[in-house]
Amino acid sequence: MTDLRVLHPTWRTWLRALCSLGLCLAATAHAAQAPITSLQRSLDAAFSQHALDIQGWQTEHGSQVLYVPNLRLPMFDLQVVVGGSFHDDGLTGLAQLTAGLIDKGSVSRSAAALALTLDDNAAQFGVVAGPQNTVFKVRGLSHTAQREAIVEVIADMLGNPAFAPDAMAKEKVRLLNLDKAREQSAAARATAQLFAHVFAGHPYAQTRAAHPETLQGITVEQVRDFHQRLYSAGNSVIVIVGNVTREEAHQMAAQISAALPPGPAAAAFAVPPASEPEIYHLEHPGTQTVLTVAVPSVPRRHPDNAALMLANEILGGSGINNRLMQELRTRRGLTYGAASQLRQMPQAGIWGLQLSVAPQYRDATLALVETLLQRYAEHGPTEQELDDAKRKLHGQMLRSSVSNVDIADQLRTLGFHQLPMSYYQTLLAELHAVTLDELKVVLKKHLDSHRLVQVSAGPSVEQRPLREPALVDAAP
């Protein structure tokens, strides 16, 4: 055996480095063969330590309330969830118009007075008006005087909006400008076409915030009727997170619920009928073509939801190591980014992916994506991919249980989708329990290439074959 002491110092350094490298490689190989063990236990312990103390009840007027105490900061986050654009009933823009007028003045206060009260009490207010629901978000100090003033003005704002004609006229102009901007987005147009096809004849087909043909004709009476039906106490979810006691949370929720119009929850939508596969091309100016490929999917309550979350993470989830990014960006340089997503409504869902490519590679890229999906459905992921996906989703769930805002968003999901308060703890166990064989079965069941809907939006140009991929390892 060579004596290190008789070697030149430089050689001794290199030999020690090589020995260390060998030990590191051996340790790495051993770790790669091991299942999720110590890391999983650490994540499990962290998640258990930060398990949310979710409490729920229904107010006297029928509002569903979800509450989590968080005493670390003297603040609270409040969300009030009501109906969204899926309830427009053919009057595209009605939900957005109603939401946009809520902070434009109440029966007893002007818009300036509402804003001044919130500002004087250091409160932040915002509205997120989407297809599924409209969410009013408030963040404020939990000190009694400030909290009570904030809740009082929010209750007045939501329960007694003025819907003044001059404010409505200005809001219509704003929404029309937003719609014009949306029509200039190839991605937005492709997504709208996807939903219009998959959910044809169903309220889920409507994703457009406003439309000139209907928005201009919407009257004050129609806005008031929408507010009466979709902002009713029985159709609302109230979320409270922060440094407030349960008794204080009860008082806050009761005050807001009592201010809302009386009425029941809106009737649940029917399950959409099955859609047929289709290929669309939307002519759109630009230097890129947006490609959207999707299959109909399932709601969150479906028994296969946990497995589908893992399958989506492997296909095109977070980071750059998913299959889409490895094949389409790393190997072929076709796009800067490619991602897949599960979009889930209470009665159905869509599992799709989206990316942008040079217009001349539109057809060839769509063919490649279809081949990738077929291969993924047929062979499934590797054990390593499944383990990595479990780690990522576990970490994401842990991070989403830290800040008040993230916790409130979780509670809103529970309330809107009518999920049990134990949903996230149960979901965590279900994610860890999914085996490779089970995931392969779910993939063959839900990722059916014969049901693909393909939408491209971009300029029409002469099509070319793809270039040869880079000389790196192929995607599994």
**Overall morphology:** globular
Please provide the ordered H/E string of secondary-structure elements: HHEEEHHEEHHHHHEHEEHHEEHHHHHE
Instruction: Report the count of strand segments.
Output: 11
Oligomer: single chain
CATH C-level class of the largest domain: Alpha Beta
In the sheet with the most strands, the strands line up as 1-2-6-3-5-4
Sheet with the most strands, sense and barrel status = 6 strands, mixed
The helix fraction, in percent, is: 40-55%
CATH superfamily of the largest domain: Metalloenzyme, LuxS/M16 peptidase-like
* Average predicted local confidence, pLDDT: 90
Task: Describe this entry's structure for a reader.
It contains 17 helices and 11 strands. It has helices at residues 9-33, 38-49, 94-101, 111-120, 144-159, 165-183, 186-198, 212-215, 220-230, 246-259, 305-316, 323-331, 362-379, 383-399, 404-416, 423-433, 436-446; strands at residues 55-58, 64-69, 75-83, 124-129, 133-141, 237-242, 278-283, 289-297, 338-344, 349-357, 453-458. A 6-stranded mixed β-sheet has the order 1-2-6-3-5-4, sandwiched between helices. Strands 7-11-8-10-9 form a 5-stranded mixed β-sheet, with helices on both faces. The two termini are 43 Å apart. The chain has 476 residues and is α+β, with helices and mostly antiparallel strands. It has 2 domains: 55-259, 2-Layer Sandwich (Cytochrome Bc1 Complex, Chain A, domain 1); 278-458, Cytochrome Bc1 Complex, Chain A, domain 1.
